[in-house]
Amino acid sequence: MAKIFQVSARAGMTRVVEPVARGLLRAGVSPNAVTVTGTVGVLVGALGFGARGHLVAGALIVTVFALTDLLDGTMARMSGGSTRFGAFLDSSMDRIADSAVFGAVAYWLASQHDHSGVAAALLCLAAGGLVSYVKARAEGLGMTCNVGIAERTERLLIVGVGGLLTGLGVDPALEIALWLLAAVSIFTVGQRMAHVYRQAQLVGRE
């Protein structure tokens, strides 16, 4: 099944990102520095703004800095490929950023006594962690797992749009986005587990 945001859309983003990546590399900025900067930016947007109820500012800041995921990857490719530490750092920073985003959302919703929204945010946090873990575990066992309807970029954009609309006065948008995200995240976990199962079955027949 295709991802929510198709390959053509990602390719369009890449064409925008590549000139920026080249400029940063020429300036001596490393992909790892961009990875860390992006995470710090997400933390500021989520904890400094989103958790305090400034949803529009928080959503915009998080979205802008979350896009560094495309930037650091492009820079790594242009500079000869990601190092082992670079890949480890990128994955670790992603988990920190995701935890901050959904933790901040859950905190704000709890302050609004929105128990259903809190449950949805915590479910998104858990399911998002599973999406990443299943892929990492499969790759650690020598199998591929680059499938799923909602990867990290899609998940952050969905919650970002929900937060932005709620901040603009569309009150149920964030909770709707969270329940939608929880559903597609759980579905993605199932997709990845099924994909790995099929690979394991084929290996067993060899």
TrEMBL record:
Q: What cofactor requirement does the entry state? A: Mg(2+)
Q: Could you name the domain of life of the organism this protein comes from?
A: Bacteria
MF terms (GO), sorted A to Z:
magnesium ion binding; phosphotransferase activity, for other substituted phosphate groups
Report the main location listed first in the record: membrane
What residues form the membrane-spanning segments?
A: 53-71, 116-134, 155-170
In this chain, a CDP-1,2-diacyl-sn-glycerol is annotated as bound at 32-35, 73, 77, 83
Which amino acids does the record list as binding Mg(2+) 2? 69, 90, 94
Membrane topology is: Multi-pass membrane protein
What does the entry list as the binding residues for Mg(2+) 1?
69, 72, 90
Query: Which residues carry out catalysis?
Result: 94
Q: Give me the comment on cofactor binding.
A: Contains a di-nuclear catalytic Mg(2+) center.
| GO terms for cellular component | plasma membrane
Q: Enzyme group, top EC level?
A: transferase
Sorted alphabetically, the Gene Ontology BP terms of this entry are: phospholipid biosynthetic process
Record-linked InterPro entries:
CDP-OH_P_trans, CDP-OH_PTrfase_TM_dom, CDP_ALCOHOL_P_TRANSF_CS, PIP_synthase_PgsA1
Q: Where in the cell is it found?
A: Cell membrane
EC numbers for this chain: 2.7.8.-
* Record function comment: Catalyzes the conjugation of the 1'-hydroxyl group of D-myo-inositol-3-phosphate (also named L-myo-inositol-1-phosphate) with a lipid tail of cytidine diphosphate diacylglycerol (CDP-DAG), forming phosphatidylinositol phosphate (PIP) and CMP. PIP is a precursor of phosphatidylinositol (PI) which is an essential lipid required for cell wall formation.
Q: Which family does it belong to?
A: Belongs to the CDP-alcohol phosphatidyltransferase class-I family.
This chain belongs to which protein, by name? Phosphatidylinositol phosphate synthase
| Source species of the chain | Micromonospora chaiyaphumensis
